[in-house]
Design goal:
Blueprint: H1 4-25, H2 37-44, H3 48-60, E1 64-67, E2 71-74, H4 93-117, H5 120-139, H6 144-157, H7 162-172, H8 176-186, H9 189-204, H10 208-230
Antiparallel strand pairs: 1-2
Helix pairs in contact: 1-3, 2-3, 4-6, 4-7, 4-9, 4-10, 5-6, 5-9, 6-7, 9-10
Domain HTH gntR-type: 9-77
InterPro entries: GntR_C, TF_FadR/GntR_C, Tscrpt_reg_HTH_GntR, WH-like_DNA-bd_sf, WH_DNA-bd_sf
Protein name: FadR family transcriptional regulator
């Protein structure tokens, strides 16, 4: 028998997908306003709390943005073609290590390419996400994990190859909840940010080998932390 909780989760997921479809059909872009929670609830014929739950799911993925006293807006991730499954179960430590080891095979080469090409848009996004992460660390913002994912995507984007960016997306965004768990287990946001800043500096200065080594060392360090915590 389907529980009430399971039904609510399914309804919430369906509503979240409906909102994404609404954004696409109306051609809305990041920063564009959405209808109020009450208006959206009326549009989809559901209770306001149920609608709010669906929107909060989308907020966690960066698809919508709640602005206190202002309203709901289209979030920065609304145009992404690859997104996490918000219903996946919490991964165990072995799965997290496998994910990190997969990233360790790919991201150092992407960092090396980024330092060689230094695509201006990718560099700008890299610097923007670093600054945003620093502010989120200071404020205790629980969306830091998403910004950290965007930093790694920005490094890939600095390489100027959109296909490689999509390859990385297919790993880090589909496994986004795993990434959130990795940050929780790592437990040192300042240390993590310092390693990101070092990698960004290598890319910005055009030091391919140093960027490659910085990316590898960063992921290797995270693997060590996760392995130590599973013992």
């Amino acid at each position: 028998m389907t529980s009430v909780h399971s039904f609510r989760r399914t309804l919430s997921s369906d509503l979240a997908q409906a909102v994404v479809a609404l954004v696409e059909s109306e051609g809305l872009r990041t920063g564009d306003p959405l209808e109020s929670v009450k208006a959206l609830a009326a549009r989809f014929d559901v209770a306001v709390p149920t609608m709010r739950e669906a929107l909060r799911r989308l907020e966690g993925l960066g698809m919508v943005d709640f602005r206190h006293g202002s309203g709901i807006y289209v979030g920065p991730n609304a145009g992404r073609r690859v997104l996490a499954n918000p219903l996946q179960s919490r991964p165990d430590a072995d799965q997290l290590v496998e994910l990190l080891e997969a990233r360790r095979q790919i991201e150092p080469s992407l960092a090396m390419l980024a330092a060689e090409v230094r695509d201006p848009a990718g560099i700008a996004l890299m610097d923007e996400t670093l600054a945003q992460a620093q502010a989120q660390i200071a404020s205790g913002d629980d969306r830091l994990w998403l910004t950290n994912l965007d930093f790694h995507r920005a490094v890939a984007a600095a390489g100027g190859n959109s296909v490689l960016v999509e390859v990385l997306d297919s790993i880090v965004l589909i496994h986004a909840e795993d990434q959130r768990e990795i940050l929780r287990l790592h437990g040192d946001a300042d240390d993590d940010h310092a390693e990101h800043a070092h990698l960004a500096g290598c890319v910005r200065r055009g030091e391919p080998e140093a960027a490659r080594d910085a990316a590898y060392s960063h992921l290797d360090h995270v693997v060590e932390v996760i392995r130590a915590r599973r013992r």
